[in-house]
Amino acid sequence: MNKWLVSISIAAAFAASPVYASVKNFEGFSAGVTINHAGSLFKVQRSYTSDYASRTEHSSSQDYGMSPGLQLQYRFPLGETFVLGVGGSFDSENSVDLKGLYGQSVKLKDTSSLFLSPGYAVGERWLVYAKLAGVNANLASGASTSEMKGTGFGAGFQYALADNWYLQAEFMTHHYREMQHSDSSGRLQRLSKAGFQSDVLTLGIGYRF
């Protein structure tokens, strides 16, 4: 993941023209549409305990999928080269298919986030930014849905086109809080723990109002 972040930042810096940096092409309200490619990993640990013995099993499930999304943001200028963005994003259901706590099929749905995004203008056309987000997603299994919350972090760049349009690329990693479930049958105690992580590459186009 770190190699992605470094590559994105270096690419934006070297592609920029050696002109005076300015945030005028990036400040204010913007709205964009995105296409998101997610690689999701679901790790499960199951522990069994009885009066006679105990054992632990580990398993994982990984899959990839794509989904369209929407991003809204307002950027505040902080001098001539820095901006601070505040915004939110929403991704619709995608095709990521994982195995849940008991081996059942679960799908990632309706991922949303609220984020802060400090940025640095490199010339008049390029902006390199970092992003820290609070994320929320749903895991659907049949008719039931489990809500998952976590944090996301990453980096990206934006290129200002003519007439207030822009292109955008970013890479984010989402870490969700661990889920637990326990039950028992006679003297047998069962405890299941699940951890979820998603790496998301986003490409987008938007308009600054």
Description:
It is elongated, with a radius of gyration of 21 Å. The chain is built from one helix and ten strands; from the N terminus they run H-E-E-E-E-E-E-E-E-E-E. By secondary structure, the protein is mainly β. It has one domain: Porin (Beta Barrel), CATH 2.40.160. It has an eight-stranded antiparallel β-barrel. It has one helix spanning 2-15, and strands at residues 28-49, 54-78, 82-91, 97-99, 105-122, 126-141, 144-160, 165-176, 179-185, 188-208.
Question: Which descriptors would you attach to this protein?
Answer:
72% strand, single chain, 8-stranded antiparallel beta barrel, 1 helix, Porin, mainly beta, elongated, 209 residues
Proportion of helical residues: under 10%
Radius of gyration equals 21 Å
Spatial arrangement of strands, main beta sheet: 1-2-3-5-6-7-8-10
Strands, total number: 10
Shape: elongated
CATH class: Mainly Beta
Distance between the termini: 33 Å
- Tell me the major beta sheet: 8 strands, antiparallel, barrel
Secondary-structure element string? HEEEEEEEEEE
CATH topology: Porin
Class from secondary-structure proportions: mainly beta
What is the tally of helical segments? Answer: 1
DSSP strand content: over 45%
Number of domains: 1
Provide the residue-averaged pLDDT: 79
Q: Could you list the spans in which at least 5 consecutive residues all have pLDDT below 50?
A: 12-20
